[in-house]
Amino acid sequence: MKVSAKNTLLSCEHASHRIPAAHRYLFRNASDVLASHRGWDPGALECATRLSKKLNLPLLKGSCSRLLIDLNRSLHHRQVFSDYTRLLPKAVRQTIIEDIYLPYRDQLRQTIAANITKRGFVLHLSIHSFAPVLNGSLRDADIGLLYDPHRTHEKNIAARLQLHLITLDPTLKIRRNYPYRGVADGATTQCRREFSGRVYAGVEIEINQKYPLGGDHNRWRQLQDHIILAVNNIFQTT
Ligand SMILES: [Zn+2]
């Protein structure tokens, strides 16, 4: 298994807090919630875009808020629809699924499948960010790396990413399978059901939103640079 820029792809499910015009009536007076961490992952798209440009990696990004439909949840998951959309008539929810959810998931699946056919292996890096404080508790990490501990390639890639990041900045706190478990419901978990650990590795990079939202632009840029360097190092060492 050789990982390179040629068999790696990026995704960013929570890239945007946009609501398509047809559904905006559901979000009147909700602009604050949409702009908060509940509506999207601040900073995730910026980092994913820089990774994509610097390392020449394809990037698939969500185009609307998770409060309309969450691209990082399975269709059977209760939170695939939010408090704003869960009680909509079934036909309206079905339209949202067909217009927004399925095209994204199908494209992700097809891109991975095509790469596996062509290269024999795919590394899928899904870029997210997490709120520094949730329900009153402080989340004690700068970056979380989420993966399935039973998948050897994912485990190795996460360990290498962690090592590279710590080498670049020993003050960083990098935690594995934190603040969520890698096997919890999500796009990578769903992909694992379809693609074996022999041909697919899905790792989520979760960035603490205190960096993009903290006001220290240089520190945020530096963290992104370190993530780019760490991913580039994976290509050179695996
Ligand atoms: Zn996210």
3D architecture notes:
The protein has 7 helices and 8 strands, in the order E-H-H-E-H-E-E-E-E-H-E-H-E-H-H. Helices cover 41% and strands 16% of the residues. By secondary structure, the chain is an alpha/beta fold. It has one domain: Zn-dependent exopeptidases (Aminopeptidase, 3-Layer(aba) Sandwich), CATH 3.40.630.40. Strand 6, helix 4 and strand 7 form a beta-alpha-beta unit. The strands form 2 sheets. It has a 6-stranded mixed β-sheet, with helices on both faces. The structure holds zinc ion. Zinc ion binds next to loops. The site of zinc ion (ZN) has 5 residues, from loops.
Task: Describe how the helices and strands are arranged.
Layout (H helix, E strand, L loop, with lengths): L7 E5 L18 H5 L8 H12 L3 E3 L28 H30 L2 E9 L2 E2 L2 E2 L4 E4 L5 H17 L5 E3 L10 H8 L5 E9 L1 H4 L3 H21 L1
Parallel strand pairs: 1-2, 1-3, 3-8, 6-7
Antiparallel strand pairs: 4-5, 6-8
Bound molecules: zinc ion.
